TrEMBL record:
<dbReference type="GO" id="GO:0005829">
    <property type="term" value="C:cytosol"/>
</dbReference>
<dbReference type="Pfam" id="PF01042">
    <property type="entry name" value="Ribonuc_L-PSP"/>
</dbReference>
<dbReference type="InterPro" id="IPR006175">
    <property type="entry name" value="YjgF/YER057c/UK114"/>
</dbReference>
<protein>
    <submittedName>
        <fullName>2-iminobutanoate/2-iminopropanoate deaminase</fullName>
    </submittedName>
</protein>
<dbReference type="InterPro" id="IPR035959">
    <property type="entry name" value="RutC-like_sf"/>
</dbReference>
<dbReference type="InterPro" id="IPR019897">
    <property type="entry name" value="RidA_CS"/>
</dbReference>
<dbReference type="InterPro" id="IPR006056">
    <property type="entry name" value="RidA"/>
</dbReference>
<comment type="similarity">
    <text>Belongs to the RutC family.</text>
</comment>
<dbReference type="GO" id="GO:0019239">
    <property type="term" value="F:deaminase activity"/>
</dbReference>
């Protein structure tokens, strides 16, 4: 089965050797997004809530480039640099997944790229 690389200028450019998303068949695998402003390529400051919102907006842009929405998401993975931020991130996350939320994992990790507080990756099926 062929794969299609998904890219949009509405989300941050990759900071490594990866694609924003890859589509194969009717499944789209979105790479983890961090709180980078796509216009400035700078990290969003102001706490985990602002970072979580920016991450989800970045993911929304990549989903749109793949002709998907949050309703198409079947799996998400949330990586936190501090598990005590779970509740704050969950509140922001819930705004984007109001109906039939996907399966999800959330873990605390030692550190995240560029010192951010949160990273989220998704899998969508269209």
């Amino acid at each position: 089965m062929a794969k299609e690389i998904i890219h949009t200028d509405q989300a941050p450019a990759a900071v490594g050797a990866y694609s924003q998303a890859v589509k194969t068949g009717n499944t789209v695998y979105l790479s983890g997004q961090i709180a980078i402003d796509p216009e400035t390529q700078e990290i969003i400051e102001g706490g985990v809530e602002k970072q979580a919102k920016r991450v989800l907006e970045n993911l929304k842009a990549v989903l749109a480039a793949a002709d998907c929405t949050f309703k198409d998401v079947v799996k998400s993975e949330i990586f936190l640099d501090n598990i005590n931020d779970f509740s704050a991130v969950n509140d922001i996350y819930a705004e984007y997944f109001q109906e039939e939320p996907p399966a999800r994992a959330c873990v605390e990790v030692g550190s995240l790229p560029k010192g951010v507080a949160v990273e989220i990756s998704l899998v969508a099926v269209k």
